[in-house]
Amino acid sequence: MTAQAKLDTTEKRLMDSLERALFHHRVAVLMLFTLVSLLLGYKALSLHADASFTRMIPSNHPYIQNYLRFEDVLRPQSNVLRIIVENPRGDILDPAFLETLREVTDRVFYIPGVDRGKLKSLWTPNAVWSQVTTEGVRSGRVIPDGYDGSAQALAQVRQNLVRANMLGSLVANDLRSTIIRVPLLDSDPQTGQPLDYGALTQALEQQVREHFNAKGVNIRVIGFAQIIGDLLAAAANIALFFAATVVLISALLLLYCRCWRSTAVTVLTCLLTVLCQLGVLSLMGFGLDPYSILVPFLIFAIGISHAVQNINLMVSEAAQGHGPIEASRRTFRALFIPGTTALLADAVGFITLLVIDIGVIKQLAITASIGVFVAIFTKMFLLPILMSYVGVSRRAVVRQQTRARASWPVFRRLAAVVEPRLAIPLVLCSLVLLVFGYQGRQALQIGDLDGGAPEFRPEARYNQDNAYLLNHYTTSTDVYVVMFKTPAEQCSRFAAADLANQLARQLREVEGVESVQSLYDTMRFNIVARNEGNPKWAELSRDAYVMNNARSGVPSEQLDSDCSLVPVNLYLRDHKAQTLNRVSDAVEQFARQHGGGPFEVLQAAGNAGIEAATNSVIRQSEKHMLVLVFVIIALVVLWEFKSLKVTFALMAPLYLSTVLCEAVMATMGLGVKIATLPVIALGVGIGVDYGIYLYSRLETFLRQGLDMRQAYFETLKTTGTSVAFTGITLALGVSTWAFSTLKFQADMGLLLVLLFVWNMIGALVLMPALVALLGARKPA
């Protein structure tokens, strides 16, 4: 007996054992699934939305490692909210408005998660002015202790704002609004748990925005935490689209199979898969973050994709005269191996996302993989048992018998793609498409390509708030922090200051950098102030005593406690990928030119610096992820079909779809980032299902002695119809996402539509053409 024959015998024995164990104990199987479902459903009720700043950043990247070393100093420029308080009836120098501003500051101060020691507002003690006079340096609080709201006091505040140079930074250029800078802690000081951005932004919404908007001022909030909070708040919108998609797919499924019992059982089984997935996540202590909240729909889509194959074959068996139990057994026997292989391929596609060292993507990979493994049990074991009880309607059987007698002229013509006269031109056209796809994808970039928060539409509240800030303030919200490291107590030495000045001068020349600020700007001002304001002293001194004296009294965020770290803050025009790349490259070039001494130039912190690190990780990991996806899925297919030619024929259409998808992303102006990167891996994992089911059925007919064209025609009549239906149905389902208020959901929906349709066409047209040309299988 050959090795292949032994393998086939082992496979047959395994199938016999599984079939007997499953169908001889149907009641026990149903009771087990019921018990597990109730337990996991109960746990799913405690699942919560979850988002963390540390999971959104690549913690092992060198930039982030540098940031974490000096987090206490750098946090105010990295994880910070800017609350804009606007007076719509005039400027901020109004007694009623300033009193309201004080109340806003007090409310924000007591919200859990706020770094209260570094909170900055016109009312906080760290909002100070200083002035050089003939008598020396004078300084004080912007809103003095004796402020009483009188005209004289307001005139004093106006003068203090000018002295403090706050116009354009903490106060709007038109004096109609002011900013409260709110640095955030990584954990809630009351619970010790990671800071809950949903709870934080909800508290801001209720206690600050809604409360004070009702008092006649306008509140706007900008920052990473607010982006996450708005995404979590949009969960209801996502759930609405999920429900609409379920209803649409259910209606199309009923129209396809003409059996309400099969439709109801299929949809309920798919929903049960999602419910169990959420229960397992809760058991493992995970939550749903904004970027993985769409995964349950993908699991539902995968379930529908496989369940349609089950219904299709079940109806075919019933049309041949088999009863519900026998038809279900034969369906189980025919679909278990290809179905399980396809689901394993899906799981592999998700698991490969773990190579991307960003916590939120890793959690997405785990979430999706759990869903696929749950689907193996619900689709491969539970669904056949349920179908053995409910069976299929007589109407569905009659329709199947009518279809079996039909001539299927469209499928007869489509089956001709396996003949060389059509297969060769088709493959050549695919190669041309591949070339165009390669050309188009050259423009694909990493990171954000739009201003504001690309997760939202331009008209969204957050982007409108961000646009207001950019239009009324000079200082940018996109801050890139370079860390200038010196030996302890050496940061104020002239050698260190001179090198930092060279760095600042060089970075000011980089396109996209609007201004550069650091400790040494403050020290230069202090030196002038301590020398009667004489501009001749507006330079750093070689005298250590002068430099140390100039360092005294500077704000704590400008250096660390032992004078060994100085943050150099770069205020950027935007956080687009090209801008961040230019800045990062310029800093790296400077560090290489001046390396080897006692001073180090380290990257990077600030919201823009962290985004640069994220882009770097995605750039390095994207190719590795795609290679792993294709290699591992190809190995799964090779293990199933034992043929390199078949493996190539199944994988080639998926690769073409991926390249075309990347070309479309480049054309649409979509960068590769956290929100879009997983889509390609998901598309490859789901797309391989079509080819596996089609080829499994084709191989069955070839073994029965049919020639290639007739075998493929019979395949199209059975599995081909369900593949076409699945691709079109899932594409229609996700097309509804185009109406979402979330731009990233709409973008993901469009990309998934393209992948579903292209993968379906590739499996129906290109895959059989390649199989025929390669001679992957000969008739038995």
Automatic annotation (TrEMBL):
Signal peptide range: none
PANTHER family: MEMBRANE PROTEIN MJ1562-RELATED, SSD DOMAIN-CONTAINING PROTEIN
PROSITE patterns documented for this protein: SSD
Protein name: RND transporter
Keyword annotations: Cell membrane, Membrane, Transmembrane, Transmembrane helix
Membrane topology label: Multi-pass membrane protein
TM regions (residue ranges): 21-42, 231-257, 264-287, 293-313, 334-356, 368-392, 413-438, 624-641, 648-668, 674-695, 716-739, 751-776
Organism of derivation: Pseudomonas vranovensis
Annotated Pfam families: MMPL (PF03176)
UniProt-listed InterPro entries: MMPL_dom (IPR004869), Mycobact_MmpL (IPR050545), SSD (IPR000731)
Highest taxon, organism lineage: Bacteria
Localization terms from the record: Cell membrane
Cellular component terms (Gene Ontology): plasma membrane
Occurrences of domain SSD (ranges): 267-389, 677-773
